Amino acid sequence: MPDSTGNCDFIALSNDSYRLLLDEVGAFVYTTDMVGRYTFANRMVLQLLGHPLDYVVGKDISHFFGDKGNEALRETDERVLRGGETIAREESNLILATGELRTYWSTKKPLRDATGQIIGMIGISHDITEKKRLEDKLRRQKELLDALVDNVDALIYMKDANRRFLYANRRMADAFGCSVDQIIGSLDVDLMPAEVAERFWQQDQKILANGQRHACEESLVDASGRLRHYWSVIIPWAGPDGTPAIIGLSTDITELHALKEELQRQARADSLTGIANRRSFYESAEHEFARSRLQGRALSLITIDIDFFKKINDTLGHPMGDRVLQEFVACCQDALRTEGLLARTGGEEFCILLPGTDLDAARHIAERIREQTQARRIAVPAQELRISASFGVAGLCDTDERFETLYSRADLALYAAKQQGRNRTSLLRSPAQEGASSSMT
Ligand SMILES: Nc1nc2c(ncn2[C@@H]2O[C@H](COP(=O)(O)OP(=O)(O)OP(=O)(O)O)[C@@H](O)[C@H]2O)c(=O)[nH]1
């Protein structure tokens, strides 16, 4: 036992089992005198120092590791020995003979004699080097993951089977105009309009039920009120507590979506006049034809050809011909207002499909356009150009099984209008519409 001056050789542990306990405790246990010399060290400390107890006792730490790197240890020792403090903290500056840096969690307490006077110090240290390395690795991985998920151009979230968000990245928070913390723990209905949340929830439920990855296009109005489009991949996952959840990754494709729509619009439009082109006209016409037949609704078609257009091109040039085509389309649009589908089906050929319009009403519309066309003055250098067009009109009848049949009748009527001198509207009824014989007017 130490004497009252604090000087001693070692603590005599008479109880072998107590000493065995200290050896097996799985921590570094030691005591020192008032100047830092070991008075006791358990097996782990002796292994670390590489010497038996009788060699270690009476020597301080610098004897084994030198002075370098032990300043912080000495500072805490001083606080315990001189100030009577109890210290519990991490110490990572013990350099072994191999040069390896290890980290310890150390508790140091003053040792007192029967009168309460400090006679030394007891230290217990746990080697937390591996735990620290693992923590550092996990922290670095988390930092990397956070950097990735916050900077990727996608909303990333995790949602449980009760519609509650378990995770959200920064992009997600930006889209909803709130903080990540506000999203986590919120229900989907707290963040978006009820009908939108319900739509997503229906989909989430299917994924939770069938456990299958799902990819689809989704739309959402963001915090600034702008409709945004996403390509979403949703995968079933287990939440932090192991209960079913889903992870969603929604990539913002708003720009791409706009581009796609523009390309689709361009593919359907005539580049000179901006109205529907032949391909899109036929697609819509086939569809409308089938619908009108099914519903027993009237459907009429006007085919149009600008008169003597070749002459305009030949005398005034192709660019002027183009302008005439544009002026003619403007004329049709003025006369039609919102009725019908106007399309350019050829060079100077146009069609107007009129759903819900009978033959007589269609002829009336064709006449209106014809009159406005011949009344229009087109300014060309040094003169005023006047144009005219011929019109063929036909209406759907019960015996028409294909759109082509209706189209052929309108085309025949147009041919007749040309034959009869142009700048006129000709109408061709089917035999069914006109009794036993067809009629051209
Ligand atoms: N400027 C211009 N001309 C075109 C375009 N597409 C076709 N054309 C021309 O349109 C003219 C059509 O002439 P035709 O089919 O002979 O008919 P037309 O001269 O109008 O005579 P009718 O139809 O019998 O009154 C041709 O000269 C084509 O070159 C175009 O996009 N722009």
UniProtKB/TrEMBL annotation:
Leading EC class: transferase
UniProt domain PAS: residue ranges: 14-84, 141-211
Gene3D superfamilies linked to this entry: 3.30.70.270, PAS domain (3.30.450.20)
Pfam families: GGDEF, PAS_4
Domain GGDEF: 297-430
PROSITE patterns linked: GGDEF, PAC, PAS
Keywords on record: Nucleotidyltransferase, Transferase
CDD domains per the UniProt record, alphabetical: GGDEF, PAS
Domain of life: Bacteria
EC number: 2.7.7.65
Name this polypeptide is given: Diguanylate cyclase
Organism this protein belongs to: Diaphorobacter limosus
